[in-house]
Design a protein that fits this description.
Protein name (chains A, B): Acyl-coenzyme A oxidase
Low-confidence stretches of chain A: 1-9, 711-715
CATH topology of one domain in chain A: Butyryl-CoA Dehydrogenase, subunit A, domain 2
Structural class of chain A: alpha+beta
Helix content of chain A: 40-55%
Oligomer: homodimer
InterPro entries (chains A, B): ACOX_C_alpha1, Acyl-CoA_Oxase/DH_mid-dom, Acyl-CoA_Oxase/DH_mid-dom_sf, Acyl-CoA_oxidase, Acyl-CoA_oxidase_C, AcylCo_DH-like_C, AcylCoA_DH/oxidase_NM_dom_sf
Distance between the termini of chain A: 62 Å
GO molecular function, one term (chains A, B): FAD binding
CATH superfamily of one domain in chain A: Butyryl-CoA Dehydrogenase, subunit A, domain 2
Organism (chains A, B): Polypedilum vanderplanki
Subcellular location (chains A, B): Peroxisome
CATH architecture of one domain in chain A: Beta Barrel
Number of helices of chain A: 27
Chain lengths: 715, 715
């Protein structure tokens, strides 16, 4: 047990060389945390690196500036005042809508700027998410996804809708999923039949099972929707799912148009500011022009015209516009994970419990090995997803930009982005899910208070595992991608990887022959070696899955059955490992770009070692033994000892590490996680200022006069 | 991919030999599920066992009768009508209080009956929990724990309070935890100083950090509390924590007494019907008689008298009355897990998605390997915790009964119960935590609806991981127990195990020499062999931990540091494995008591194999390789193949397996999990009947007139 917490007296924070470094002049972004009194100080003074420098590694200054512009606006705007208690559902919808409008209206950045620096779009939304994701989701769908889809799939006939949208004259939503069909979009039942006599499409919903549902913004606010429907031409032919812009509500009265039945999906586990809705159409006519016709059009007589013969390819293209959603979810998840780990680390550094027998000394719970192991591996993985989300956001941004400017995006990079976003979204969501849960538990009883926020974070992250592709279904896109390339031979990976997520597999055969040949802790904790291990894991699982599919084929199973019967212990693990490995290597690249001797690089390297060692130990030892990569029994011990040695080292840096990624207290908004670490003062403050904390309940007579219960109970 | 779902036509359910078997005459408990039309029928007809017989294996008929008495009362009582939306906090408190009073008032069983058959007490509470745990928690604390503690720790002076309590003339609560001290109760700061002049104790709370908190029932309803305070005698000596009965509120006006400041802890992640509160005392006098004096008393002059010299031992005894809480939590968790798996299995058997290429056939998602692996291992572990909770409930019941009747409970069985409840509570809670989460994800988007209930189940189970001992701290009680016995030599386990949870360790040395010597799937899936593996795991982790503590001691670390530094990868894993192993062996015993050839025994054996194989594969392979129990690389493959072979077999039994443990639809109360499997009809019904589903929001003008946003956004 480290005694370090007992002798705290230092004049200057170890890691902060120059307190007045001009690069950190903006005190809102780089507050003087080291001047705050309180329980966190001993840790801040012990940290060996400059948290402000680290802040600029996790996001560049312009990004922090946009974030603080958003947070500053919120803090000054009465609309963003918080309530002490969960509001009624309708109230939550109302306030989220008003907040969404007011902040979007603020034009913190314009669509033009967005087209210039797509990164800002995501980070603007990140800043809002940190306050309340319902707002960013409503903006993202209503004023982001909606116009984007029109821009990428619609022809010039409908582009004016985009301008109106940016002037907030219409509010969009996106309707694909139906009550009885989600992942299996091919079988959706909503129809759009072309009527040459009126040059319009007639929309119909056969029954409730075919109602479009889970449509964010639809329940109470949207005026227009992108609707995917089976397109029928007068000759009775079905041309598969096509996207249409559909006016839903009268812009002046906000009443749904005749033929459009809009329902609210009701209360959800969380994200209740978002009014998810469902809609049924009954002979509802929309002008022909509202077909988003870039992938296929209908002439006045009703002939279907397209340059893409294969309907699957056509649908693939019309869905391509959506992969942005998966990329965005990596950032959503990262934002939740950051808030959770801030709260848990600061609380654990402030909360004292137990101490040496027969002494008055009490240790912060962060000093205990158990608590360190419960949190520090998550701190490492949150840094990992932070860098991964930045990377995939940048790469996707570049592509979108090319798309808008008409520049050609190579088929390979499109496919690789599809694959890595289909693995990265599930894996990031799961990493954050586990992080939030352990943070909740590590904060004990007080972590169960609503005001601690950990419950909301868990409930907000939960849909990340489902929407934009149910994780276990979506992730098959990644394994299919890897298996298809493998079928063409290992060397095919070289040209299949403009983004560099699978290039390493060109040496698959050599990788499969590699072995664990380390007997020193330093070696197994070395990132380069851990990457070697991750490479083997992906290659091995790919080969295992590839062989499984071959043997199932040789048994004469259909491709459908082969795919379904090669998931568990095979394709599913492969895709997850592919995601883990890319998150790991992105983190490593990030470090390799830092100045060699910098203390930030040093601590990040330790974090990466912790991330890798714990990931391998808790998830992949089976694979390494099964694949004969490990043949000696000491591998476990080396990793375990490496982790146990690193825990107390990172423990002293943990507070500064969360300071680096932390938004202001107004945004963290948890009595357990404030920057001064004064947990009990904030708890007392919160409880004493909650209405009716000390009052006798209005229904006190129901407590006192129990005779009233006899009647009801004697029915 | 099994085609079985396509050719469904059978006249009599395979597993139900005699449809009119008189043992199943009560149609409320054994409804004719096989007569219900709908998507679940094909599975019900395929099941090879009689779900009604299985029902009686999971709980005896008298228990089901008590449960149905409770559920029937609720269904007939308007107080138990459900709302479509989360109620405001104060409303939730009010309704939970009224429901608690009315059902307790119903005297479904009396305290006398409880003393006769303690099991009924737990199962009565189980039935209420299945509807809403807030009610059972309020009753359990107010009318169960409160009188029990007085009976076991108080002398005759206070026994009248027990009778009043059972007449609902007082409502109890239990105040131990303080804001800044939970697990470390020794350092609590609330004081009770004896004043000889008035023959009373004066209670004081130095500051907010010392406020008693998390006290269920305290916030709004309790009239009395059990308060643990540091007892000071006039000579200024502190005699450690002692328990007192403390009147809190005037029974007629329900106002807190002068000197008592009661606050409400506010909104929590869930369980919001329970009014958790905090309390501060300021020179608050209570009569001397209110000291619960069985473990220590004060004479009129203020001399402390006790037969237990060691204060720690004294406190141990006064806490012994609390282990019932941990046993109760095993049952709470089991109840949540049962509801979750019912919902997920029924939904997966009803929900169809995808089918063979170029066909109109759609498969229930339960037909997919991935979905099977997501749910069936959890179905197995829920059966496992069901049997474990029954076992520990019975054993604890026997002890309590002895306690009340004054019969001697052996020190050994007391210690073993303390250990196994300290491991069983965390492990059961974690098993159910993971089950609920996977059920939530496996139900996709519709599983995220509030009405699906999976979110509430997760949030309700969450505190099980924290209260009655934070899991990671509490579980050390189990490892300490094992290490202490091991220190006396393996053979000491024989006499230390009246409950039989550690007796097997008397052969520790032989167990440590045992090896994996199976090369056939049947062998590794055989429960007896899996138990051999579990035995090795516990013995190995015990030896590993024991050696770790010895080496830390030899480095001169204090016992405090040794304990803290031998948790991660050691004592913590040991205690968890001990819990897993006991859950496993309880399940096995349960099976061994069934008639040899019965089809129920057959399917339960498969469930146990699934539970064991998956537990070993996902959690313990490291240990088996590290401990050289496994030396060949095919062990993984054998377990994986065994699981893959069993999944489609159990899949066909899954619906009947959840029917066997399912409460009536009124209690399951999820559109996804009703017994007829008509998911979409129930969803439509729920949404169409939710107020304001189709209406324009009252705040529609905030949507239409956006110019209103300019002012607020231009502050």
């Amino acid at each position: 047990m480290s005694q370090s917490t007992q002798n705290f007296s230092s004049q200057q924070p170890k890691g902060m060389k120059d307190l007045n470094d001009p690069r950190f002049a903006r005190k809102d972004i780089f507050p003087d945390l080291h001047l705050l009194d309180g329980p966190l100080q001993q840790y801040r003074y012990k940290a060996t690196f400059d948290w402000r420098q680290m802040r600029l590694i996790t996001d560049p200054l312009p990004v922090w500036e946009v974030k603080y512009k958003v947070w500053d606006f919120m803090q000054k705007n009465p609309l963003f005042g918080r309530s002490h208690e969960t509001l009624p559902l309708d109230e939550q919808r109302k306030i989220a809508t008003k907040r969404a409008f007011s902040i979007f209206n603020e034009k913190i950045f314009s669509i033009e700027q967005y087209l210039e620096t797509p990164e800002l779009g995501q980070k603007f939304s990140t800043a809002i998410t940190a306050f309340d994701p319902s707002i960013s989701v409503k903006i993202g769908i209503g004023f982001g996804m909606f116009p984007n889809v029109i821009m990428s799939l619609g022809n010039e006939r409908v582009q004016d809708l985009v301008m109106e949208n940016q002037r907030m004259e219409n509010i969009g939503c996106f309707a694909l999923t139906e009550i009885s069909h989600g992942s299996d979009s091919q079988r959706m039942k909503t129809t759009a039949t072309y009527d040459p006599s009126t040059k319009s499409f007639v929309l119909n919903t056969p029954n409730f099972e075919a109602a479009k549902c889970w449509v964010g913004n639809l329940g109470k606010t949207a005026t227009h929707a992108i609707v995917y429907a089976q397109l029928y031409t007068p000759d009775g032919k079905c041309h598969g799912l096509n996207a249409f812009v559909v006016p839903l509500r009268d812009k002046k009265t906000h009443m749904a148009f005749p033929g459009v039945t809009i329902g609210d999906l009701g209360e959800k586990i969380s994200l209740n500011g978002v009014d998810n809705g469902f809609v049924l159409f009954s002979n509802y006519k929309i002008p022909k022009e509202y077909l988003l016709s870039k992938t296929g059009d209908v002439d006045d007589e009703g002939n279907f015209i397209t340059q893409y013969k294969d309907p699957k390819k056509r649908m693939g293209l019309s869905f391509a516009a959506l992969s942005g959603g998966r990329v965005g979810i990596c950032e959503l998840a990262t934002t939740y994970g950051i808030t959770a780990i801030i709260i848990a680390i600061r609380y654990s550094a402030s909360r004292k419990q137990f101490g040496p027998d027969n002494s008055n000394i009490e240790y912060p719970v962060l000093e205990y090995q158990t608590q360190q192991y419960r949190l520090i591996p998550h701190l490492a993985s949150i840094y990992a997803v932070r860098f991964f989300s930045n990377w995939i956001g940048r790469e996707y941004g570049k592509m979108t930009l090319k798309g808008f400017t008409g520049e050609k995006v190579s088929v390979e990079s499109g496919m690789e982005m599809h694959a890595i976003s289909s693995a990265g979204k599930p894996v990031s969501g799961w990493i954050v899910r586990d992080c939030i849960q352990d943070c909740r538990e590590a904060c004990g009883g007080h972590g169960y208070l609503k005001c601690a926020r950990l419950g909301d974070l868990r409930n907000d992250n939960d849909p990340n595992l489902t929407y934009e592709g149910e994780n276990n279904v979506l992730i098959q896109q990644a394994s299919n991608f890897l298996i298809a390339i493998r079928a063409k031979g290992w060397n095919s990976f070289e040209n299949a990887s403009p983004l560099g997520t699978v290039a390493f597999l060109k040496d698959g055969e050599a990788i499969l022959r590699s072995k664990w040949n380390w007997s020193k802790i330093e070696c197994v904790m070395k990132p380069e070696n851990q990457l070697t291990i991750m490479n083997f894991i992906v290659a091995y699982l790919l080969e295992k899955t590839f062989n499984r599919t071959k043997s199932l084929q040789s048994q004469g199973q259909s491709s459908f059955d082969v795919r379904n019967n090669s998931q568990v212990f095979h394709a599913n693990c492969l895709a997850i490992a592919y995601g883990h490995r890319q998150i790991y290597s992105t983190f490593l690249n990030e470090i390799q770009n830092l100045p060699n001797s910098s203390s930030e690089r040093e601590i990040l390297t330790k974090l990466l070692s912790m991330f890798g060692a714990n990931l391998i130990l808790t998830t992949y030892m089976n694979v390494l033994y099964e694949g004969s990569f490990i043949t000696n029994v000491h591998a476990n011990e080396l990793l375990q000892t490496g982790i146990l040695q690193l825990l107390p080292v990172i423990k002293d840096e943990a507070v500064a590490l969360v300071d680096a990624i932390a938004p202001p207290d107004f945004i963290v908004n948890s009595p357990l996680g404030m920057s001064d670490g004064e947990v009990y003062k904030h708890l007392e403050n919160f409880m004493y200022q909650t209405p009716d904390t000390f009052t006798r309940p209005s229904w006190w007579k129901d407590v006192v006069y129990k005779e009233n219960y006899l009647p009801t109970s004697k029915l």
